[in-house]
Every structure is written in structure tokens, then in C-alpha cells.
Amino acid sequence: MIDRVLAEDVELFERAVRTFRGTRGAGLPYLESPGALAFVASRGHEIFGWCWGYQLIRPDGFSMLYLHQLEVVEGHRRQGIGRALLGAFMRAGAQAGATRMFLTTGETNAPARALYASMGGGLAAQGPTVNYWFRLSP
């Protein structure tokens, strides 16, 4: 079952953070942040997939989605869970007014790339993506 995770579902979200990140999370602040979107695939108490990201409002008035992470537990892969999570994320964003979505993935992540291509994703027209990370100090 795929569920959108809202602030009242913080316990479910925290379990997903522990499952996929191996740490305690900041569930409520994330879930209450503007534009936060999260979905969890679960059955009973077992969590076997999640995705999360943001709806971003741009200064030109357009809205787009950013998918930060989509992950499925290894034993549950190739069963349509990733497709269902991605579809739910995209539908929720479209219903909220987003007209585009972006994400990054590893060049060698063939299963993810095949999923994204099969759901209409195209490679960035401006060429290969280069990511930079910055540490910010208070």
C-alpha cells in the first residue's frame, strides 16, 4: 500500500527514515515544511519503500517538483513498488500545480534510469549534470 505521509503520520515517516537512512530523523519539521512531499510503501508494520522531495515555487510563478530519494528494500524490488511511489509523487505534485519534476541519479544506476525513462523522464537538454555540495556554518 502506498500512503502519502502527512504531519499526523510522523511515526510512519520516522520508521521509514530508520529503515532507509539508519538514523533517527526530524520527521515533524520535514513534514510540516512548505512543499514537503513524502510517500511510504508498507504493509502492516513492514516498510518496503519510500520517496520524498519537495514542490518548489519559482520566482517566475511556475512550480516544479524535486524528487530527492526513492528507494525500495532489495527483497521487494522489481514488483512495481518504485513505479507506484514515483507515480504517487508525480500525481500529488501535479495536483498541487507543479508542471515539471527533476531528480538526479547515478550514471550507472541502470534500474533507476530505466524506471525514469519508462515514466516519461528525459535526460537534461543542457548536458550532463554536475552536482556540488556545500557545508554551511551558522
TrEMBL record:
Any Pfam family: Acetyltransf_1
InterPro entries: Acyl_CoA_acyltransferase (IPR016181), GNAT_dom (IPR000182)
A GO molecular function held by the record: acyltransferase activity, transferring groups other than amino-acyl groups
Residue ranges occupied by any N-acetyltransferase domain in the UniProt entry: 1-138
Domain of life from the UniProt record: Bacteria
Name under which the protein is recorded: GNAT family N-acetyltransferase
Phylogenetic classification of the source organism: Bacteria, Bacillati, Actinomycetota, Actinomycetes, Micromonosporales
